[in-house]
Amino acid sequence: MFRGRTQSAPNRQLMPEGRLSGPMPWVIAIMVFLTVLAAAAALTLSSATTSTGEQLSREATVQILAPDPAVRDREQRAAQRALVQLPQIVRADAVPPADVEALLAPWFGGGSIAEDIPLPALIDLTLARPVDDMMLASISAAVLDVAPSARIDADSAWLEPVLQAMQSLQWLAAALILLLAIATAATVVLAARSALGSHSATIAIVHLLGGTDLQISRLFQRRMALDATFGSVLGFLAGAAMLVGLSRQLAALETPLLNASTFSPWLLAPLLGIPVITVLLAMLMARLTILGALRKML
Amino acid sequence: MVEFQNVGLRYGTGAETLSDISFTLFPGSFYFLTGTSGAGKTSLLKLLYLAQRPSRGVIKLFGEDAVTMPRRRLPGFRRRIGVVFQDFRLVPHLTAFDNIALPLRVAGVPEGDLAGPVKEMLDWIGLTERATARPATLSGGEQQRVAIARAVIGRPEILVADEPTGNVDPDLAVRLLKLFSALNKLGTTVVVATHDIHLIGKIGGAQMMQLDRGRLSDPTGALRYPPKPLVLGA
Ligand SMILES: Nc1ncnc2c1ncn2[C@@H]1O[C@H](COP(=O)(O)OP(=O)(O)O)[C@@H](O)[C@H]1O
Ligand SMILES: [Mg+2]
User: Fold this and answer.
1) Which residue, A36, A31, A29, is CA-closest to A270?
2) Which residue in A148, A139, A122 sits closest to A66, CA to CA?
3) How is chain A split into domains, by residue range?
4) What is the ipTM of this complex?
5) CB A192 within 8 A of CB A290
6) How many CB pairs under 8 A join A and B?
């Protein structure tokens, strides 16, 4: 039936199969589990950073600081008229005084504070392209002509440290993934060595009966692939279950940075590469280890 | 068929285990390799079945230089030599059937074509009932017979047996020798290492090679003056 196959491998039963050999599958399961989590963290952070950063980079706020309410109103209207003329600006919305009060209320306690402290008038800007200093300067110049007490700030400015922290976390996650990959490779090498040790008699026999290096290494690759597949699938499923559970909890948590939209099940698609790569890595390492050992025999 | 010229073998840095070994084996002949324990019989056979490279000298196998032959060509040559190892070397987790089938599987014989020859072998060594037994559950003599069946199932051109009668009672020893002799009559060149001089007289027409502390002597002169020099220089 599988004529080509039987000719390439002496016998699938040559190495005892059908049961897991030692701790390797379990260690691989743990590695894959951790790698899936680290990769999911890296991907989530990266998508959150870019989407938040991108959105914020197109937003700016103009504050009219004049203390006299009449002047402030006049300057706000003049500034808004001037702003909508500018090609860089898609929208310029005056924020109603009530909303400004609501925004500040948590800091000042309840009640009407407008009477006690002069609150600035705000204009929310939506920009045509991501903000830069030049753009901010030119908008500022246009506004200051008609509203001398105006001040303009890019919204991204206050989030910059947060975004930077998120980027650092991303690097951390990437470094973790790299370390886990190295540890997994080392595990697989050790497992291949121990398999080599426990099957050395069989290897020597097949070798002396005229088995080629390729035939013997294939047997090992198959053995290792079985163990690695078991471990990888287990680790991936555990990781995926964990992520789905976490995303449910995050969905309930309504923060602008980490919410349901930043983690979605499609994230699991690229993560599927992790078990696949692990199995391929295991087979490669098994092959290299066995071929290296066989080359030392005559 | 096999030619050794001034072959020497040294393990590590010690004295030479084998020195100045020169002989020629002719197709279809039967050879005994004798010598006391530690004389170097196993070492010489290892050179012959390509488990060891000599430290010096020339070994020609089937007309080709086996010493300088690239590694990748060795498996093909090993498949032409059947070996009964001194310690049997059966694969412990395989049944008697699978152990005997191993050389055929290594050679890529399709699964469907295995059962016939393997059953025939089991029948020949009288172990048909033990086909599914693993080596650990077989007696020493039974393991030896499985090892012999494995060595001959691939119809090797040369059969090398290292003390094949070491673990069996004298009756069985003689039966095994008759078995080798039968194979020899079918054209296989046979080399049997033994320290048991009494066995040698049981096979008519056999040549004797004697090892003494790593040196080969030729008491019957057969190695230098072969009785059947038909293939000389072919
Ligand atoms: N792998 C080895 N490494 C070192 N010395 C060995 C090895 N194999 C055999 N010897 C030595 O070579 C000598 C010959 O051994 P061997 O060929 O097994 O003899 P025999 O088979 O005639 O009993 C012995 O002294 C033995 O100790
Ligand atoms: Mg010996």
Assistant:
1) A36
2) A148
3) 9-53+160-297, 66-148
4) 0.88
5) yes
6) 67
Give A103 Cα–ligand 1 centroid separation in angstroms: 92
Give chain A's end-to-end CA distance (angstroms, integer).
34
* DSSP state letters, A84-112: HHSTTEEEEEEEPHHHHHHHHHHHH-SS-
* A10-to-A224, B85, B92 alpha-carbon distances in Å: 17, 20, 16
Interface of A with B in 12-31 (CB under 8 A): 13-14, 16
End-to-end CA distance of chain B: 10
Cβ of residue B98 closer than 8 Å to a chain A Cβ: yes
Closest partner residue to B94 (CB to CB) among A7, A13, A204 is A13
Global confidence as pTM:
0.72
**What number does the ligand 1 atom closest to the CA of B45 have?**
17
Q: What are the pLDDT tens digits along chain B (234 aa)? A: 899 999 999 998 889 999 999 999 999 999 999 998 899 999 999 999 999 999 999 999 999 999 999 999 999 999 999 999 988 999 998 999 999 999 999 998 988 899 999 999 999 888 999 999 999 999 988 998 999 999 999 999 999 999 988 777 788 888 888 889 988 998 999 999 988 878 887 887 788 889 998 898 876 665 655 555 444 443
Answer yes or no: is the C-beta of B39 below 6 A from any ligand 1 atom.
yes
Show Cβ contacts of residue A293 under 8 Å, excluding neighbours closer than 6 positions.
A196, A203
Query: Are the C-beta atoms of residues A229 and A288 closer than 8 Å to each other?
Result: no
Question: What is the number of the ligand 1 atom nearest to the C-alpha of B163?
Answer: 21
- The C-alpha atoms of residue A47 and residue A45 are separated, in whole angstroms, by 6
Residue B90, ligand 1, Cβ within 6 A: no
Q: Does B231 touch chain A (CB under 8 A)?
A: no
- Span from the CA of B6 to the centroid of ligand 2 (angstroms): 21
Residues of A in contact with B94 (CB under 8 A): 13-14
Strand partners, B61: B2, B64
**What is residue B220's predicted lDDT score, i.e. its pLDDT?**
62
